[in-house]
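#lab-general

N.A. 3:47 PM
ok so I finally got the sequence cleaned up, no stray characters, all 304 residues accounted for. can someone with queue access submit it? mine expired

B.Y. 3:52 PM
send it over

N.A. 3:53 PM
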Amino acid sequence: MLITGALVLVAGLGTAGLIYANRTPSIAVSGAFGTTPTVTIPKIDPPASLQSKHLISGHGARVVKGDLAVVYLTAYTWHGTTSKKVSELSTGKPQPLDVGSTISGLDKNLEGSRVGSRLLLTIPPKDGFGSKGDSSVGVSGKDTLVLVVDVLGSYQKTASAHGTPTVAKKAGLPTVGSASAGTAPAVRIPKTAPPTTLQVQTLIQGTGPVVKKGQLLVAQYEGVIWRTGKVFSSTWKSSAPAGFQIGTGQVIKGWDDGLVGKRVGSQVLLVVPPADGYGKQGSSQAGIKGTDTLIFVVDILGTY
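B.Y. 4:20 PM
back already:
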């Protein structure tokens, strides 16, 4: 009886040891929210199915399909027992993402998350870039992706400027009407020649942070050709606001010069001559000639 009992006890310990030994090692993530995390991926084969975990549960606005989400993204490929950081996706800067238009494994987990959350995602090829991968970002068709996603902000189609309307002080500029949330304001162009230098007029004075060079700027905007009155680009007519790095040459000079120094929450009118817009070459696909002056109404929604 004593021997039998001892065998049962040893067997029980043995079973517990096997369960522990076969438990899948987890991915370790450390570092403050909104900064580049330290990620340790175990040297084993990745799981075959989509895995997700909220490392931090935020309390901000809930992200929905169609939003522009601003995220701090760190990405690794995981194939076999090896892993590698994807520098093309891990930019070290806030990134704008159109929720519902990224890879499915990311979209599924962004939707419903809250601003302030940190997500850990393990995304197999079928939920990532598919069997062909994406060579432009260094991901093969066999690579599983490991993403650490800090959700910094989210903006819906109805996001708009919020502040105090100002009195127009400059004569000869287009007039801009008021508009309901999610719709573009009407722009009335005077029947005169456009100004030859960049004109910047704050229509609504926001009270948020000052826009600084090098930041990601989130905005609603509409662009109109002075000559024709034609709208050539508009976030109000698309699905969501847009994000641009400001003050670094990523956008036209009129935006860089006209928006740096303004405050979040403001609505700004920009009248942009060719030299500060698309130059002598214009933009044929947008119907912009090299002599065209452009009008922009910009609602500054956020900076990162």
